[in-house]
Structures are given as C-alpha cells and as structure tokens.
Amino acid sequence: MTGEVSGGFVVREKKLLMIKxxxxxxxxxxxxxxxxxxxxxxxxxxxxxxDRECTVRKYKSRLKTTFTRDGEEYSxxxxxxxxxxxxxxDTENGEWVTLKEIEExxxxxxxxxxxxxxxxxx
Length: 122
What we know:
By secondary structure, the protein is of the alpha+beta class.
C-alpha cells in the first residue's frame, strides 16, 4: 500500500456535500500526511472545503476500499463528519446532492466503487 486517503461525508437535510475536481465528483478528501491519523485527514479535508470547523463523528468501515491513482495504490478511509455551524454552507467547487443525484454524477475513485453502498447507508 502506497498511501492513505481519507474523506468526509457531510450530510445535511438528506443531502450529501460533493465537490468537483476536474470532471469528477467526490466527497472532500485528502492524502494523509506522514504521522497524521486518518480521522484528522478527513476533518482537515472537509474544513478546507467548507472553511469552517467540523467534527468527525464516525468511521464508515463498510465504505473502506482501495484504489489506484497514477500507478500508486491507496487505502481510502471514509468518515461521517458534522459541521459545527447551523448556518447555510456554500462551497465554490461543490454542491449538496440528494442520494438519487449521486447516481447521475461522474464519480471519482474511490467513491465510484462504493456509490451503491453510500446510497444505502445514508
């Protein structure tokens, strides 16, 4: 295993926060830095997208998977993340989508591997 990527699933009013990176859609995620625990990576990724404090609530072990990017293998560790503020949240490169709309998006790895499970879990 070369690296670890952690992502944050933020759900509000039955909608999931998704961000667009190039042509693909995903949840906020980042590669873990050396010595960083995966839950902190998910928190950091989400806070950078939303520009506000977040709390990691739960590791979503059933959504864990591996994927290959640029010839390197990664382990993906997803977490449920909660926004600390009740204010409306907008993000420049993202949108809030219903679970049905996830199926219509061109998803990035590793989310494309787990999309059906995501829809069933949230």
